[in-house]
Task: structure prediction
Amino acid sequence: MQQDSLWQAVLGEIELTVSRGNFVTWFKNTTLQKQEEGSIVIGVANIFIKQTLEKKYTDIIKETLEKNGVKVQQVDYRIVAGPPRTPQPEKQTDHGDQPKLSSLSSDIPSSQNVFGAPAKDVLSHGYGQGLNERYTLDNFVVGDGNELAFAACQSIAQQPGTKYNPLFLYGGVGIGKTHLIQAVGNAIATRDPKLKILYISTEQFVREFVQALRQRNTASFASYYRAADVLIVDDIQFIAGKDKMQEEFFHTFNTLHQANKQIIMSSDKPPKEITPLEARLQSRFGGGMSIDMQVPDFETRCAIIGTKAQSHGTELGHEVIEYLATNGQTNIRELEGALNQLLAWCEMRGIEPTMAIAASLLNVSKARPKHLSAKQIIERTARHFQIPMEDIVGPKRDKDIVVPRQVAMYMLRNELHLSFPKIARELGRKDHTTAIHSVDKIQKESQVDASLRNAISEIKEHLYA
Ligand code: ADP
Ligand code: MG
Result:
């Protein structure tokens, strides 16, 4: 196959496997520069694309080449000026070694800049980059803890730059900050594709800035960011202590803000707790709308799990969802991790996810909650069923005592992951097989008996309240 048609075929396939945004940003203007036995050289427009392809996409490229009958061990990337359509003369091959910064800047004619494109193209290059289509406002579940942030984002999506500027979302890890700010970017891009939307993590922002400094090219860096219509900066807390970056960002911020361009930031802490941070930035960060995001409540967590499972094509039963929402940690990222683990496990074995499987999978990785003791669980169970503590751990075998005792055993197993002999001892039984049967029985019955299920969740709610 001709080099060019081979590469077009490879690109065609990659386009189907990565998101459109990623394809346009990272692959669209690449070319096959050289193909030899076992190795290829791909031409890219700039150092950012080179680094990203190296880090994230080399395997996909190799696999896709192989599907097209070309097996390579070595994939190198070479920065070629402009949209690289024609292969460059041999002497410019760099075999994928990262060009030294000094040589990189001297390789690029003066009319070009750090972004590797001619200066006149800089301001349109890469806008929209960094947005991941996976995050939308539609697939964000709204509930206690994130309602306000969501409402602000929705309003910004309709009319960027008018209200809530800047928007500053802060809160702990894994609670949906990145999801929301990405979703606003995507929503604005959909409504008005002409707008220049820039999403960037602060770490990348700082890296690019350092590079621009080294190449004495801060002017194009600045003009690139200052030409954005919407600037979204994730995890801005990482700007702490970076003096030059703060100075630069201050001016970018002002330019955009004065022109009524929307600025959105996320952080793991409120502006005044980001230190060291210049006072003037601190006051700018807090000068629009700052919103403290909280871990969503139980019902919202259930809704999130249900939605995520659906997006995997799986309908989860109530009890599995509730089990995950109670036990799979409260941070949504971890919750999603627990769900993915469960779905993958079941898919591999071709079985439906059940609460028993969820329980056994989570038990492996889950530590015991430190604040809960066996005694508290037994007491709470006894109180729920309105029987005395002496009875639940005593010798009586009446049905209205036996069932609560079994529920207590089940709770000890699921909440504290105690061994069966220990469970038996805690409830004054000598034989641990009683504990095994009891846990098993409640496990099974709770799947068909709604009132039993309610009893268990009510007890749990009190224990974790
Ligand atoms: P943060 O940036 O606050 O650390 P992320 O935005 O990365 O957290 O969220 C972690 C994961 O949880 C992501 O996969 C995100 O889609 C998901 N998530 C968090 N909150 C919600 C929500 N309310 N609805 C749907 N998914 C959510
Ligand atoms: Mg984040």
